[in-house]
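Much of our argument rests on the idea that a fold can be written as discrete symbols. Part of our work consisted of pairing the sequence of a single chain with a tokenised description of its backbone. The amino acid sequence and the backbone structure tokens for this protein are reproduced below.
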Amino acid sequence: MRRVRRQASGEEMRDAERVKAMVSVSGYLIGSQESGKMPLPPKAELQWWYQFYLATERGREGYDKYRHDFAKLIWQLASPNWNFDDATFERSAASFDNPDHVSIVVHNYRWRLGLAEGESKYDDLEKQLAKGPAITVPSITLEGDANGAPHPDASSYARKFSGKYAHRVISGGVGHNLPQEAPRAFAEAVVEVDQY
């Protein structure tokens, strides 16, 4: 991304000067309301069942009432081969008890569908992001071979990386939570991209 940003001191700095390189799990992750308008094939839409559920007040109330069960189900669906224990889940689940948690999650999914407004002060940035800008810094994208979460095929986003780029599929039943399921592969990618 070659957008120019201003620092507090007033000097200009390009993104490539702020970020040396990037490791991204599940590819090109710039979302927008524009991309959310595009219908997907039925099987892909089914994977987003919870997005539509959270678009309703029943979904909001259900998520609030069953947030731990909901999150555990999503973990299981997104990483079907990851046999995480209760202690691992509970370390993350503690964050679900934040009083803003439900509102933030629901707003995120409703915003994606165009059912909620974003922060108007970021409208110009949202317009830029909706164009799907190129990532110019050296990048490695990682995907688990058993990712059960909705995700595009790497061939659909490879052209979005205009700097040195590599894609890796991490095998062994690795799901959506790749950094936690395969920390060694993730760390190796960070070290590798630092050498680009």
Q: What stands out?
A: The longest strand covers residues 139-144.
